[in-house]
Specification:
By secondary structure, the chain is an alpha/beta fold. It is built from twelve helices and nine strands.
Length: 260
């Protein structure tokens, strides 16, 4: 059983809180403060993005944070270094686009992620039927391949994804990109039920979850809650990183209260 599977089993009485940030944003040094705030705010695991120039699954907030990180020269190795500094304390999952993996070298990247203590890899632009080799190497390296399903995924594709997934399945709440939203789709419960019928792998919901109220709703039918753009906004709106850290901790504590 992988570390991700273990933590979902150990904490099965509540939906796990999974905050996201872009690796190296707003700076490498300040990103460490953000990750510390995630932990002190009660995160169950951390998701961190590897900056890439064409993040097709991400909305404007994450795109802007990625651009800022790239302009400062943040590389995949820098993000792996950040992961290695925190992975002994909390599970770390990386979201990375396949161009980065390909340029780095698929085997080499997965090996480096495993050495850094990364527990899972999310590659949003690698379809499951084209990712067989990637999934196999991840499993051999002790890294969970985290696969995505969307409301538009037909049942037969959900079944294919479910057979290959481990750790958890990333359920995209909307047919769109990441970003804070004012409300969740009223079709979300039916979508999650459709996935749940086809797998025992834990399900985490992301894309658009941005308030404690959203988290409470998601927790009714999912095993994990992923929040990203709202947290990046808190960092971007703060006058300094200490203020940002306090805002993050306050927000995550509020979310954790509704998840208990």
């Amino acid at each position: 059983m992988s570390r991700l599977e273990e933590i979902f089993r150990e904490r099965s009485k509540k939906a796990l809180l999974m905050p996201y940030t872009t690796g190296g944003y707003p700076t490498m040094h300040e990103c460490r403060h953000v990750l510390e705030a995630f932990i002190s705010g009660g995160a169950d695991m951390i998701e961190m993005g590897v900056p890439f120039s064409d993040p097709l699954a991400d909305g404007p907030v994450v795109q802007a944070s990625t651009q800022q990180a790239l302009e400062q020269g943040v590389t995949p190795d820098d993000v792996l270094q950040l992961a290695s500094e925190f992975s002994a304390r909390i599970p770390v999952v990386l979201m990375v686009y396949y161009n980065c993996v390909f340029a780095y070298g698929q085997d080499r990247f997965i090996e480096a992620a495993a050495a850094a203590g990364v527990d899972g890899l999310i590659v949003p632009d690698l379809p499951v039927d084209e990712g067989t080799e990637f999934i196999d190497i991840c499993r051999k390296s002790g890294v969970d391949p985290i696969l995505l399903v969307a409301p538009t995924s037909p049942d037969e594709r959900i079944e294919l994804i479910a057979k290959s997934a481990s750790g958890f399945i990333y359920c995209v709440s909307v047919a769109g990109v990441t970003g804070a939203r004012t409300s969740l789709s009223d079709q979300l419960p039916a979508f999650i039920a459709r996935v749940r019928k086809r797998t025992d792998v834990p399900l985490a919901i992301g894309f658009g979850v941005s308030t404690p109220e959203h988290a409470a709703e998601v927790a009714k039918y999912a095993d994990g809650v992923i929040i990203g753009s709202r947290l990046i906004n808190l960092v971007g709106e703060a006058p300094d990183i200490d203020t940002a850290g306090r805002a993050i901790r306050t927000f995550l504590n509020e979310v954790n209260e509704v998840l208990k």
